[in-house]
Amino acid sequence: VMGPPLPPGPLGHPFSPSEKPPKIVIELFHDLCCPFCKKMGQTLEKVMPSFEAKHPGVVQWLYMNVPQPWHAQSCLMHEACLAVSAVKPTATWPFIFALYEKQAEYYDAQVTDLSKRQLYQKLAELAASVGVPTEDVMGKLGLVEGENKGSQVTQLVKWYVKAHRIRSVHVTPTVFVNGIEAPQVQSGWSEDEWSEFLSGLVQ
User: Fold this and answer.
1) Residue 185 C-alpha from the chain's centroid
2) From CA 56, how far away is CA 61, in angstroms rounded?
3) Dihedral angle at the C-alpha atoms of 125, 89, 83, 172, nearest 10 degrees?
4) Backbone dihedral angles phi then psi of residue 174, each to the nearest 5 degrees
5) Model pLDDT, residue 1
6) If 124 and its partner were Cys, which of 17, 79, 92, 134 is the partner (CB 3.0–4.6 Å)?
7) Smallest Cα–Cα separation from 137: which of 188, 94, 66, 85?
8) Smallest Cα–Cα separation from 63: which of 36, 88, 27?
9) Contact in structure between 65 and 28 (CB atoms under 8 Å)
10) 3-class DSSP state for residue 49?
């Protein structure tokens, strides 16, 4: 049956592998260029491993790529993330955390005079800091043969964009718990506030 291409598997970058279906799935719809996502992400960098140690396998955290169009560089940042995931899936979250740490280097004023290739190179060099060879990432970001077909990760970008549009996600960060939006979750939550929220879910 002819039709548009479909993902070969579920979308989302899991924080840790699940040996059995988790009780709770938390989807984090984040933009890598969004300072509010950075704030949440850096708190979760502490919360997620701590909670996993106490409740192994109960929660599956999924990072959902949401490139926001008002920052042109955002799509390139997400392409690099997807390239890292394609080369070495276990490096995806370390790359996300590393990019949040360096996020200010990718703000509008800092990148306005950089070419697309220069931005790719900068992102690929950051990937090397989490164990993914620069040349492998650049290989995934290189143009494929054919007219205006993008890179090897362009189709993944399309699927992620379609996924968040179908879910009516506009603001980042947006969090879903077991398929339902959780608007009470705030980007500025502390570790204690996250712990209280998670404790209520696992009771």
Assistant:
1) 18
2) 12
3) -100
4) -125, 135
5) 72
6) 134
7) 85
8) 27
9) no
10) helix
**H-state helical runs in 59-179:** 72-87, 92-101, 108-111, 116-128, 134-141, 154-166
Tokens of 186: 């705030």
pLDDT: is 203 or 29 the higher one? Answer: 29
Measured distance CA(162)–CA(67) in Å, rounded = 11
> Residue 49: pLDDT band by 50, 70, 90 thresholds?
very high
Cα–chain center distance at 19 = 22
Q: What tokens does 77 get? A: 């940042």
Task: Return the structure tokens found at 162.
Answer: 């379609």
- Provide CB contacts within 8 A for 86, sequence distance 6+: 140, 152, 153, 156
Residue 183 token pair:
């608007």
The one-letter amino acid at 16: S
Q: Can you give the pTM of this predicted structure?
A: 0.94
